[in-house]
Every structure is written in structure tokens, then in C-alpha cells.
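Shapes recur. Our protein:

. . .
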Amino acid sequence: MAWCCAVHIFTWYFLLLPWGVGRATGMFFCVSQILYVKGLTMRVIKSIVLSALLVCGAAGTAFATNGLLLEGYGPVSHAMGGTSMAFDNGAAAMTNNPATLGLAPEGNRIDIAVGMLRPNVRWDMGQGMSERSDSRSFVMPAVGYVRRQGDWAYGIGAYALGGMGTDYPDAGMYSQLVVGKVLLPIAYNISDKLTVGGTLEYIKADMDLVMTDPQYGMRIFDFRDGSDFTGATSGWGVSGKLGITYKLHERVTFGSAYQFKGELSDLTGDGARVKNLNMPASWSAGFAVKPFENVMLTADYTRIFWSDAMKTLHVSQGNIAMPLKQNWKDQDVLALGVAWDILPQLTLRGGVNFANNPIQDNVVPLFPAIIRNHYTTGFGYRFNENHSVDASFGYAPKVEVSNGAPFTGTVSHSQTTSQLMYSIKF
């Protein structure tokens, strides 16, 4: 126990504090110490509920990758290009494909994770004027508990779903949108081949916005709470996800999931109101194939229905109201991954994630969710049968999109992402 606590302190404090995430780190450390006590399941669940609420309140802005969404949830999936439909990928299954919880071994599992996004966004306004966004580092916490007992699997958790944000101090522009979820998943093995699952989701969104007329320099909107973890306006909604897995062969598994659209309430606060912000529906399907006992190949296809979710945001504050046209296109995402158990305790992973740009023209520089492709890698290391660590890293090459009035010029965006997770099984 002392050895485990020492590893825990080193991981959360010495690795994360230099990144300036003490607030999130402290929260995770306290939660993890509670979870080390292998008491009654209800004690674990109560701890996870508390952490879930903290995660939704403390998740910093998650910069967009596949639109508003991350290219992969959990370092196992992220390292493999975001694939997750047809294999066990830990507690993150509750937000990926809840049916894969039925592929996990019997017992309890707790995953405590943190992600870091480092975007590089520049707005070239023409006539020799350009500005790089000062929003360059964002933290994404996550925590999940799952239990597999017989044919049933269930759990609870919270994940930073995604978002976007920029900061152009010279231009008087700032935005921060963060979306988080509290999740209640359940899965059932109908047979030794077929598993079905579902997740009930509570969604919370926070938004800050400072907007200045680029031509006349007049302040249009100004609502910002000054926190990296919350927003001046907030709203909520309820959604859900259904999934299945089917073993076509002892070495081939098929999986599919449908995410229902998340319609959010108006985001309100500080005398401001944001209408018509919704989370998209999506459909995914994929395969996991094991050509060798220690090698797994994965492939997923996802269709994200942005056109029904990101249309026009209606923003108002005081006597000022303005529509911010989005008009996003539906997005196709192809993800490929590989996992190689190079040693009994060590797994190496890699992947790619290819997608079209949902914002093809007239990008609002405050919300430049224009990233297309990602290249990912990572590893998993098992200390013993009860404790393991997983890590992932992703790189997204630069994408440029030209704008018309009123935000004339060119917006470019590249970024790196990383995730780290500590898992406890008992």
C-alpha cells in the first residue's frame, strides 16, 4: 500500500504540478486516496459521484479536434487513433461504446485520468496584421468506475467531452466553451457473442465570450468569469448512447454505437444568454481483429451529424443581440489503430484519425474547430494484476481556412494532445 501511494503521489504531483494544474491535481489525488480503500462498493460509488460533480465543475476548456469533440476518449482509445467500438478500453467505454464494458474481465475497475491539449491558433487579418491566440494549454480531467459481475456491467463516471476557445488580447477577442458529462452506463451479455449496452448522460456546458467589432473597435459582448474551469454562462441537457458488440470469430469482434443528440438549455449568466448550442448525434461502427495472440488491429468509422446541431448561435447581453452563424457540415471520421503486447506487462499502441473539416469556410476566429487529421501513439504498463498506467500522445498538423467579412483573413490551427491514466482493479 505504501508503494502504491508513493507512485500515486509522484504521478499526480511531480508530473502534473509543473504544468500548472494544481487545482485539478489536488482533486484527483484526494479522490484516488479515497478509492484506494477497498471497502464496500457503495463507498466507491459515492466517491465517484462526488468526483464526477467536481470534474464537471473543474474541467478546463478542451480545445476542439473532431469539431467540438476529442479524437479519442481515454488514453487506450486515443493512442489507437480514437478507435474504441469493438474492444475493451476501460471505463472510457461508457462514453465510447458502453457495450464494450461487457468485454472487460470480472471485478471492479477505477480509472483516474487527466488530458492536456496544446493548440497553436493564429488569425492573420491581412494588411500585415496577425495575432496568435494566448490560449495554448488546457486540462481535461476524467474519472470512472465500472463493475463487471456475471453477464452485467455497470458504473458511473465523468469526462470532459470537448469544447473550443481562443484569446486574442490585442483584438479584444476571447472565448471559452467547455462541455462535460456525468455518465451512467450499463451493459448486458445476451450470449457469449452478443453484448448490448447503454449510457444515460447528463451534459453541462459553460461559456465565456468577449467580442469586439474588428472594424470599429466597439465592444459587442463581454461576459467572462475569469476562471479557467467555469464560464460566466452555463446550461445543461440530457442525452444517451446505445451500443452493441458481436464476436464474429474468436479473433474478430464487431461493434457499433449511436449517440443521441444532446439538446442543451439556454446558457445564461452575467446578464447574457446563448441559445441553440447543442451536442451532435453520431453513429459509429468498427472492428477489432487479432491476427496474432499479442497483436490487435482496429478500425472505426464515425459519422457526426453537425449540420443538425451547430447552425446559428443566438447571443445576447443587455440590449445587444447577434446571431453567430456556424452552419457546420456533417463530418466523416476514419480511425485506424494497432496494439502490440511486446512484453507481458507492456503494450505499445499507435493510430491515425482522418476527418473532413466540418467548417469549410467563413470560420469565426473565436471558434476555429478546423483540425482534420491526427497521428497518435502511446503505451500501457501493468505493474501487477491490480495496478496499471496508460499514456497517449497525438499530433494534429496545421489546417488553414480563409474568412470573409466581418472576420476577414486566414485562421490556422495545429495542436498536440496527451492523456495519462492510472487504473486500479480489485
Summary: The chain is about 10% helix and 55% strand. The first strand starts at residue 107 and ends at 126. Residues 1-41, 48-63 have pLDDT under 50 and may be disordered. The CA atoms of residues 194 and 246 lie 5 Å apart.
